[in-house]
Amino acid sequence: MANKNKDFNYGLYAVIAFVLVAAILATTTVFTFKNKYLAFSPEKIAVNYVDAVAQKGDGYNAYKYALVSKDAKYGDFIRENYIYPVIYPGYSSDLDKDAMKEVKANGLDTDEHKSDATLNDDGTLAGQVTDAMFAYYVELMQTVTWDNYDAFFTNYMAKLVETRAAVFGDDYMSDEVFFTALEANVATFGDKLTGTDTEYAADGKTILKEASVGLYQTLYGTEQLAEVVGADGELEEVTKLVYKLTTTAGEAQELDLDAYKATLDADVLATYGVTIDEITAASSVEVTVATEDGAVIATVNVVTAQIGSTWYVDSFSTDLSSIYALQAGVAA
Questions:
Q1: With CB atoms 3.0 to 4.6 Å apart as the test, which of 36, 196, 250, 325 could cross-link to 286 if both were Cys?
Q2: pTM over 0.70
Q3: Rounded distance between C-alpha atoms, residue 248 and residue 3, angstroms
């Protein structure tokens, strides 16, 4: 039987994003218990991987269903491969504890690299950095996409260092700066796809997020009555463009294990804490994305690999370009 999944604005409230991102980093960059439960089925892990990208363009968090998250350390994987090499001169992944402590002592995330602008920022300048980075994020989504996470993280980090230095006038950089900007950009891109309702602060008057029409609403929406929260906190009935995308997984097809293993890169898997010999089965799952009227708008062949009783998406063998092509109309 098929498996289905239905369906920052920065400035004055930039500091709010810092609080939110700090609170969710622990959950967005790990392979959670819920995901492990889903991963007992290759169909469920495949459909959730595709759904994350189809609904919100979120290839970043889709990787929590992939082999890179096998050891529940996706966040550490990003730090060790893309952040630490930039902020800690002399860093390498094989440093022992004492050597790591030494390189951290001279890192760009130390107080010596903080200008007055960094020390006194209330979130406004950080918000300017995030806003400036969004245009580059969109560029990467249109040229690289999350199918190539290595190029995405590498290029995003390099641009972030340059952009932040121009705004703050110093060379301070930390993993918090990286994750705050990136996750805000990921969320904003999703909003550009789905559209947003007006969101108000607790005073019921100050607008935290303006209403907007998303690309998907334009492409697939029909005018319908919908309820939204008004400035007084009460539900109001308005006419808006409504759409629904559904991802559906077919039955997993077993792959020849030896032939599949021959395609794998042992060095890349090692960065995930995975060895080729750990993989005991592989499968292919066809996942389709369709509109509410049943029209298929994208089809993805998802390759999954089993380690123990858990299935993971092999992101290198899975091509999501058909979905990213649907999102090419998003503008910064």
A1: 250
A2: yes
A3: 6
